[in-house]
Design a protein that fits this description.
Blueprint (H helix, E strand, L loop, with lengths): L4 H4 L1 H7 L12 H18 L17 H8 L1
Length: 72
């Protein structure tokens, strides 16, 4: 994994996979809507869980931060 520029350069990763707030920089409207929809999907899924939620391989925290904020 150390050979993959995507994981060695956090700025590049964040450009390719922005969080909802960062999605405003995405020019492609369809892609921007997919980013927002994916975050909304996972937030809704966590509401169905009656206990702690663990996100494995959370990377930059794109979903971890909103999930933790929602559940606190």
């Amino acid at each position: 994994m150390n050979d993959c520029l995507l994981y060695n350069e956090p700025e590049l990763y964040d450009l390719l996979f922005p969080n909802t707030v960062g999605s405003e920089r995405v020019q492609d409207a369809a892609r921007r809507e997919r980013i927002i929809a994916s975050e909304k999907f996972y937030l809704e899924e966590t509401k169905t869980v009656k206990g702690p939620v663990l996100e494995l391989a959370c990377g930059s925290g794109r979903l971890t931060v909103p999930i933790a904020s929602e559940r606190s």
